[in-house]
Design brief:
mainly alpha
């Protein structure tokens, strides 16, 4: 979550960095735990970050 929130790395790069060899499996596991895909989470956090001073 930290990498998704605080970097501009692509989701597949983060998945590899944290030890997932499959982007699909990473996305499925993330969505199961947090209710949204990693890409949705990243987009939401980055959009909100831009709105803060």
């Amino acid at each position: 979550m930290e990498l998704l929130e605080h970097t501009d790395k692509k989701v597949y790069e983060i998945a590899e960095e944290v030890g997932y060899s499959s982007l699909s499996y990473f996305s499925t596991a993330f969505k199961k735990s947090f209710g949204q895909t990693p890409a949705e989470y990243q987009a939401f956090k980055q959009k909100n970050k831009q709105g803060t001073p």
